Amino acid sequence: MVYKDYLSDTELKNLNQILISEDYLFYGLKNKQENSVFKRTFTSLMIAMLFLIPNKEVVLSSQELKRLYQAYLEYLKHEYDYRGYVTHKGWAHFFAHSSDVLRQFLKSQLLQMSG
After folding, report:
1. Nearest-angstrom CA–CA distance, 46 and 56
2. How many whole angstroms separate alpha carbon 115 and alpha carbon 107?
3. Does residue 14 carry a pLDDT above 60?
4. Is pTM beyond 0.90 here?
């Protein structure tokens, strides 16, 4: 739905707020819930998707983008589960999806302009 541009700008901004919440990006970090990395890492993939909507600039304002960036850096400081493939569960993909997000932040003109 994100990649195909089915969501309005308002819905994308609301999705951004949901993704950086305790229920998604920070899910299970405080109590180190087993396998909660799957929810966090696929949330990261969704964050990267916000930058990859074809023929559309990032809908987040520079202030919102900066808030997202700060939240993501905070998440990276606290992530503890670096597993790649988890037997009988699949790929956790922490490193892959985090690098996707960081690449999008580095490419973002809005982030570069906001300092």
Report:
1. 16
2. 13
3. yes
4. no
Residue 67 carries which side chain, given as an amino acid letter?
A: R
- Closest to 68 measured CA to CA, from 84, 86, 48, 82: 48
The count of other CB atoms within 10 Å of the CB of residue 115 is 6
SS3 90: strand
CA 83 to chain centroid, in Å, comes to 18
Question: Among positive and negative, which fits the CA dihedral 61, 64, 67, 69?
Answer: negative
User: Bridge-partner residues for 95, per DSSP?
Assistant: none
pLDDT tens per residue across span 31-75: 888 899 999 999 999 999 988 888 787 788 889 989 999 999 999
Q: Name beta bridge partners: 85.
A: 91
Residue type, 41: T
> Which pLDDT score is estimated for 61?
86
Find where tokens 């707020």 sit: 17
Give me the amino acid identity at 30.
K
